[in-house]
Design goal:
With 110 residues, the protein is α+β, with helices and mostly antiparallel strands. The chain has one domain: YaeB-like fold, CATH 3.30.2310.20. Helices cover 32% and strands 27% of the residues. It has three helices and five strands, in the order E-H-H-E-E-E-E-H. A five-stranded mixed beta sheet has the order 1-5-4-3-2. The protein is globular, with a radius of gyration of 16 Å.
């Protein structure tokens, strides 16, 4: 018999999702398969080292780009108990890569 897990959302997750929806229109449908697995009690992704045994980082495919999971989203969640999971935050790995490649402006240099 499948386990029904309750999924909660932090304000940070909601904020990050709202921001990502503006640029990545299919993010909700991309998240759906992961959400279904979590609701069934299946833990996806890797445990985050140094954060305890119950924090996970899952790769999620971004269907708005053609680069696979590696450049997709990262979903951070916390398994409070076997019946409760909290989605902590989500971010686009591709957006993070682009930000890191932009060099800061020179201050006072002409």
């Amino acid at each position: 018999m499948p386990t029904n897990v309750r999924i909660e959302y932090t304000p940070e997750f909601k904020r990050a999702l709202r921001k990502l929806v503006k640029k990545h229109h299919h993010i909700r449908s991309d998240l759906q398969p992961v959400m279904m697995l979590l609701q069934k009690g299946e833990l996806v992704g890797d445990r985050v080292s140094g954060a305890g045994n119950t924090v996970f980082k899952a790769r999620v495919r971004n269907s708005d780009i053609q680069k696979g999971k590696r450049s997709g989203y990262r979903l951070i969640y916390w398994q409070k108990t076997r019946k409760y999971i909290t989605l902590v935050t989500i971010y686009s790995k591709l957006d993070e890569l682009v930000k890191s490649q932009i060099s800061p402006p020179l201050v006072g240099g002409d």
